[in-house]
Amino acid sequence: MDTNRSDKVAAGRGLRIGVIGAAGWLGGAIATAMLDAGIVAPEDLALSYRSGRPDRFPGAFWTADNQALADRSDIILLSVRPADWTQLRIDVTGKLVISVMAGIRLSALCDKHNTRRAVRTLPNAAAEVRKSYTPWIATGDITDTDRAIVRAILDACGVEDEVRSEAEIDYLTGLTGSGPAFPALLAEAMMADAIAHGLDRAIAQRAVNTVLVGTGRLLEQRDDCPADTVRTFLDYRGTTAAAIETMRTAGFDAAVARGLAAAFEKSVRMGEPS
Q1: Domain final residue, candidates 117, 133, 164
Q2: CB 88 within 8 A of CB 80
Q3: Which of 118, 133, 164 finishes a domain?
Q4: Cβ neighbours of residue 240 under 8 Å, at least 6 residues apart?
């Protein structure tokens, strides 16, 4: 573990962390990442569920009482749907609250949960494999220790950036919060086309998945701007260039921009009072 990461983990050592919504996909992934990184010990981890206690995280405290979780925790992570948050009634009395809910403003978190120490963040589903990109922003009342703990938790899930405004979080809700769905959508279309051309389903799936995973590793290791990679293929004037130009003529770039705009607008609406 590098020195910076070690310092961040040490900052949280001994703290009790509660995850409301730990039975869900994202809440469970974050809890697993924190345990694996040594940020919290099982006995210091409190987890809540709505119906049916999950059979995972041995040694952790499970409860259906969210206020009981808040009372025994130093840090409370909110991982519920924004629509369900409206019914959530907990008083954290000045403790650090970390929200992974789309659209819910810092001011609303502070007012509802009786604290001035709040963080708004949005990991994505790739947190399950420690590859999430996670933007976050905090109130001015969080401490340096709070900030180090937040970074440690989000680093355990992948890569994080503290951004400048909640408007940036709203935009990134669509770009990165929804992010894994977009390559999956492309993979679905590519796989359907391959099967339509007679390929066996298993071969089509393996081919498409390997292309996407390999592309991700290539971009990560070369640290190129994606536009540079696209330009390389266009300059070669081969089959890939023919495909790219046809896709763009059909409106590929515009469709992506419209989709991201729709996600941004939805994120803003989700944070508005009903």
Answers
A1: 164
A2: yes
A3: 164
A4: 233, 234
4 pLDDT above the threshold of 70:
no
- Examine the domain organization and report whether 201 and 131 are in the same domain: no
CATH number, domain with residue 69: 3.40.50.720
Residue type, position 209, single letter: N
Which residues neighbour 199 within 8 Å (Cβ) at sequence distance 6 or greater? 207
Collapse the DSSP code of 78 into the 3-class scheme (helix H, G, I; strand E, B; otherwise coil) and give the result. strand
pLDDT digits (tens, 9 = 90+) for 229-267: 999 999 999 999 999 999 999 999 999 999 999 999 999
What's the rounded mean pLDDT across residues 56-67? 96
- Stretch 2-31: mean pLDDT: 77
Dig out the tokens for 111 from the structure: 């007012």
Q: What is the mean pLDDT of residues 171-193?
A: 94
Which letter does DSSP use for residue 37 in this model?
A: H
In degrees, rounded to 5, the angle at the alpha carbon of residue 108 between the alpha carbons of residues 103 and 112 is 130
CB 33 within 8 A of CB 127: yes
Asked, for residue 131, whether it belongs to a domain, the answer is yes
Q: What is the pLDDT of residue 5?
A: 47
Helix extents (H) in the chain: 3-12, 25-37, 66-71, 82-85, 106-113, 144-157, 166-172, 181-196, 201-222, 226-236, 239-249, 252-270
Decide: 108 and 272 in contact? Cβ < 8 Å: no
